[in-house]
Amino acid sequence: MRHHANTFLLITGIVVASAGVIASQWLVPYFMDVFENFGAELPALTRLFVYGHGFLWVAPLIVPVASAWVPLRTPEDRRRGIVALLLGVAVGVLLPMLCLFAMYLPIFKLAAIVD
């Protein structure tokens, strides 16, 4: 039973992290038209999400790699699965929030210059 519970938690973590990547990649095109009209250089974080959004797919791969490093105490130990789930949820929630911040960052910088 241990194997099935850990596998389910691992797959769930990977799916949630992948959903976060998909949400991040879905946000970027909405801001591209705005950025083209700015005429100013984008901040580094914004450029990372705009030009390097393909590399975001590394994030879901971190989930199984990080959970594999968790030592098991007993055969029934579910710590690997729990770590995978928590890490997947963290990536799935924080990555779109960071992407949204990165997309609004040039707008905040422009507003600071205008004042």
Structural class: mainly alpha
- What is the CA-based Rg, rounded? 18 Å
Task: List segments where confidence is low: pLDDT < 50 over at least 5 consecutive residues.
Answer: none
* pLDDT averaged residue by residue: 87
Taking the alpha carbons of the first and last residues, their distance comes to: 62 Å
Number of strands: 0
Main sheet?
Answer: none
The arrangement of helices and strands along the chain is: HHHH
Can you describe what's shown?
- There is one protein chain.
- The chain is an all-alpha fold and about 120 residues long.
- It has helices at about 1-40, 45-50, 60-70, 80-115.
- Helix 1 runs parallel beside helix 4 (about 80-115).
- The model has no long low-confidence stretch (mean pLDDT about 85).
Give a brief rundown of this model.
The protein has four helices and no strands. It is mainly α and 115 residues long.
Walk me through the topology.
Elements: H1 2-38, H2 44-51, H3 59-68, H4 79-114
Key features of this structure:
115 residues, mainly alpha, 4 helices, 79% helix
